[in-house]
Amino acid sequence: MVKGENISICSIVSILLFVSLVLTGCVTLTSAYVPDAFLIDGWYENTSLRNTGLQFMGMEKWGSLTYEINGKFPATLTVTTLKSLIIANEEDIKKKTTEAIDQTFNDRIIVTNSTSGKRQLSTGHESIYMLYEGYDTKDNETVKMIGEVWNCPTSGTSIICIGLAFISNHEQGGLFNMSHWNILIQDPLGTLEGSTGEKGLIYNIVCH
Fold this sequence. Notes:
Blueprint: H1 3-26, E1 44-45, E2 51-55, E3 60-69, E4 75-84, H2 90-105, E5 109-120, E6 126-136, E7 141-152, E8 157-166, E9 168-169, E10 175-176, H3 179-185
Antiparallel strand pairs: 1-3, 2-3, 3-4, 4-8, 5-6, 6-7, 7-8, 9-10
């Protein structure tokens, strides 16, 4: 390698480091969240699971919030907000979300059915959703999962939601309880599985 090439590479590295430092300060992020008014009947944010981070040399920031409900039919919802210089393609986000669900749950949940589609949220954004029904081999229970994504042009962010709800409990004589699942997915039009209501957690997420 000649001396000129060394200088060129050093210059590129210096520029990249400078851009990284600048962008770290310029890319600000306000995480999407579920308003407290909709955290009812035992739902709460588990603040110990709040998480934030930087990637791609500071050009992308992300933050996640996790909501839970405990009891005999536990459920959870993780809301992750991404912000970068160029807003992500929704189909790419959908693919990454599907992969994340597979990687997270494939060691214990056997998926027996899945559907996908689009709906409109309370903010007016159109989202892409993926619904799954499966069997949890560790707890021997039936579960339902949702992955839902959308872009928010107003805030320049991409939102990724992943929800899981146990709908059976063999200790309760094999009873099924859809109430927590319905709170996760419901909207006024009953777009998802006919679950109608105005208090859906994902439907009411604030992103701008």
